[in-house]
# Entry
Amino acid sequence: MKASFRHENMNEIRYLTDSAVVVRLLLSLLLGGILGFERGLKNRPAGLRTYILVCMGSCIVMMTNQYVYQVYNTGDPVRMSAQVISGIGFLGAGTIIVTRRNQIKGLTTAAGLWASACVGLAIGIGLYEVAFFGGLSIFVVLTFLGHWDYFIRNRTRDIEAYIEIPDSLAFSTFVREARMRGISIMNVQFESDDTTTDGKLGFICTLRSVKRSEHGRIILTVRSISDGITIDEL
# Structure
């Protein structure tokens, strides 16, 4: 009897009512705000308002779809949500930037927007447990796993870097000296005008260290080849 009563109560809170609409909108505002606040603190392209709008908008779409299904007893209850999943990709693509030096920025923000939309859809259909724990998990990933991600990346053998060498240093000599120090120069892409404004030769390349070490040490090793070498990790 108790199990049956509990089941009826659960169905009641998942059914689209006036109170359910208010609860779902407030919950989408809260979870979207939490995710957006974290991104805003890191000065990312999409911040507090963007995340809230994405989460609430997805929630509204899902409730509208549920309303049509309940009131008119027709249609697919998840059809509109499928359009949100694919459509949010256009918004996410706007946050991804490829710089002149082939740096890709904004991927995490784009993924966060997509995940925020998914949280909004879960709230909109009344799947509160998945929305809450899913939103909490996304927040943990965005907030705390960034340090772990940096720790792993900083200890890889390969580094994507932009290097400028003085015109007094031949490129072949630079490559040979780097190899003598246990670093291979790979995937070289020279600047379109071949030289920078101050006469240095600029290029993008992959530095591969024979031994695994922190990227800072590898960069210092490359700089030690000759005076006037500048290097930026991409």
Remarks:
- The longest strand covers residues 201-209.
- Confidence is low (pLDDT under 50) at residues 1-7.
- The CA atoms of residues 157 and 209 lie 5 Å apart.
- Residues 2-153 form one domain.
